[in-house]
Amino acid sequence: MWTKLASVLILLAGCAQPPVSDPVPPAGEDSCGASQYAALVGEDATVLERQLIMGPVRVIRPGMAVTMDYSPTRINFAVDAANRISGVTCG
């Protein structure tokens, strides 16, 4: 029984969304150009429909399974439960 429980916990941990500590990456770590979208933090996520973003983009919503792969040129938009953009990061 403990083996099954441990297996389930390991699988769930792989789907966990990393916490967003800073809504925008520091200047030296902005490999994807996320800082140019810093003004969108706090806006309704529908604003992304009107943005022309060249390159890979990922919108991360609460409870959404997210792969843990890192792509330095991908822009991640974190969206909260109120459908507001809560952070913009690279990865």
Molecular structure report:
The protein is 14% helix and 16% strand. With 91 residues, the protein is an alpha+beta fold.
Task: Give a brief rundown of this model.
The chain has one helix at residues 2-14, and strands spanning 57-60, 75-79, 85-90. With 91 residues, the protein is of the alpha+beta class.
Keyword list:
alpha+beta, three-stranded mixed beta sheet, 1 helix, disordered N terminus, 16% strand, 91 residues, 3 strands
Task: Set down the secondary structure blueprint.
Blueprint: H1 2-14, E1 57-60, E2 75-79, E3 85-90
Beta-strand share of residues: 15-25%
Coarse morphology: globular
Radius of gyration: 15 Å
Helical coverage, percent range: 10-25%
Largest sheet: 3 strands, mixed
Which oligomeric state applies?
Answer: single chain
- Overall mean pLDDT stands at 80
How many helices?
1
* Sequence of secondary-structure elements: HEEE
Low-confidence stretches: 1-20
Report the structural category: alpha+beta
Distance between the termini: 37 Å
Strands in their spatial order, largest beta sheet:
1-2-3
Number of strands: 3
